[in-house]
Design brief:
Layout: H1 7-18, H2 29-42, E1 50-54, E2 57-69, E3 78-88, H3 97-111, E4 117-119, H4 126-131
Parallel strand pairs: 3-4
Antiparallel strand pairs: 1-2, 2-3
Length: 151
């Protein structure tokens, strides 16, 4: 049997290690992969992983999270989305691939009928999101809890 690699977990690990201000990891890579696989299975109904693949290699990922919203008389079945963990490996950046990944993820969100999709962006990625139609809103507020050393 061929060895199996859980690519999203590998990319998530690489993303954390890439950050200059990242806190030390709470577990080693193998433990994280096991944890991540279990987490992805438990959250498959709310988090749908999208991957960017070149040849046989996964070079990017995005995790749209679907949140069910309180029904209204006009819209009894409502949902919104939060675009999480968008990552493209450094050697594939600045070629429009992140934009392609986000565009395809937004198309999936539209298929799901999501009312809106939000994202917590890095400073570097703000222009990319703006090019794809994301905009700041004074009506969308966030309370950021400071419970972990890394966002």
């Amino acid at each position: 049997m061929d060895p199996v690699t859980v690519r999203p977990a590998e990319l998530r690990w690489r993303w954390i290690l890439e950050g200059d201000d990242a806190a030390p990891a709470a577990m080693d890579r193998e433990a994280f992969v096991r944890h991540f696989v279990a987490w992805a299975g438990q959250h498959a109904s709310s988090h749908r992983c999208m991957v960017l693949v070149r040849g046989a290699e996964v070079i990017g990922m995005a995790w749209p999270a679907v949140v069910h919203r309180v029904p209204t008389p006009h819209a009894p079945d409502r949902s919104s989305g939060d675009l999480q963990c968008v990552y493209v490996v450094p050697e594939a950046r600045d070629a429009g691939l992140g934009g392609l990944l986000i565009t395809e993820t937004l198309a999936r969100a539209e298929e799901l009928g999501l009312e809106r999709v939000t994202v917590h962006s890095s400073n570097r990625a703000v222009p990319a999101y703006a090019r794809l139609g994301f905009e700041s809103s004074p009506l969308l507020q966030a309370h950021v809890a400071r419970t972990t050393p890394y966002p």
